[in-house]
Amino acid sequence: MDNHKKGLLLTGLGVLIIAPDALLLRLITLPAEQVVLWRGLLNIVGFLLIVILRYRSQWWRAYLVCGRAGIGCALLFSLSTIGFILGNHFTKAGNVLVILATAPLIAALLSRFFLQERLPLRTWLAIGGCMFGISLIVLDDLGSGSWLGSAFALIAALGLAGNFTLARSQPHIDMSPMLALSGIITAGLALAWSGTIALPDATDMGWLVLLCLVVLPVGFTLIQQGPQYLPSAEVSLLLLLETLFGTLLVWLFLSEHPSQQALVGGAIVIAVMLIKNGLERFNKTPEQVA
Questions:
Q1: Which residues cross the membrane (predicted)?
Q2: What is the pTM for the complete model shown?
Q3: I need a labelling partner for 208 at 20 to 30 A (CA). Which of 49, 72, 85, 276 fits?
Q4: In contact, 99 and 161? CB cutoff 8 Å
């Protein structure tokens, strides 16, 4: 299997695994700061267990080789985690997932300025189209005060895109072990914010264990390996699968329907991204994709 196909397989499988993320967050009744705290604490355990299983007695070496870039990835992933949780707390899950779908365009911009990867005209046009779609979602949120959720969702997209771009800068190093460090950072920030740890009830703890010890560690470990084989923008682009399936799951199980204006904005973002990806696949080889 060539590197491009391997990258697509790892990333695509990881994205499908994390698709229930927004739904599971909606099912947890803890305050937002406690969700961030418990997600961080349990992610430490989940991601560390995967590292130990993969690297056995040499697991600690996996952290040493990541260096400063790995620390940066952990910080950016923490930013994305906090933005995603708070975004879901203040606005509809579908809105958060659509805004998160802009991560590939942000990654393309970051790659252009920091990795000197060329940014073609179609990418600039796609950025403009996505910004228009997002503006419809944000304007729709203004009346209900949930614009803050859209802002946090955009922060999540920035953190995710930055993480993938930084990982792409070191394609020979597996940065996925640093996701355990991200859990430490996330939990520490949440504890400083809340000042206390609230013990979840049995139902909430069950959802937290499923999300933070199974779904997120397995899914993001696969996704974090994607930049070893694919451009960061292409890894981010596969997150469109989470937008589609994650929104569908919330609709099916919680009947959380977006407004007509939010649907139009989301449709614009997804359509632009699909058209952009189709043009790139038709006109360029995988190695040339922005």
A1: 36-55, 62-87, 93-114, 121-139, 145-166, 178-199, 205-223, 235-254, 260-279
A2: 0.78
A3: 72
A4: no
Supply 218's token pair.
């397995």
CA distances from 200 to 122, 207, 208, 253 (A): 48, 10, 9, 22
Which tokens go with 216? Answer: 């997120």
- d(C-alpha 56, C-alpha 237), whole Å: 32
Residue type, 53: L
Quick one: tokens of 170? 């070191």
Residue 167, φ and ψ in degrees, nearest 5: -65, -35
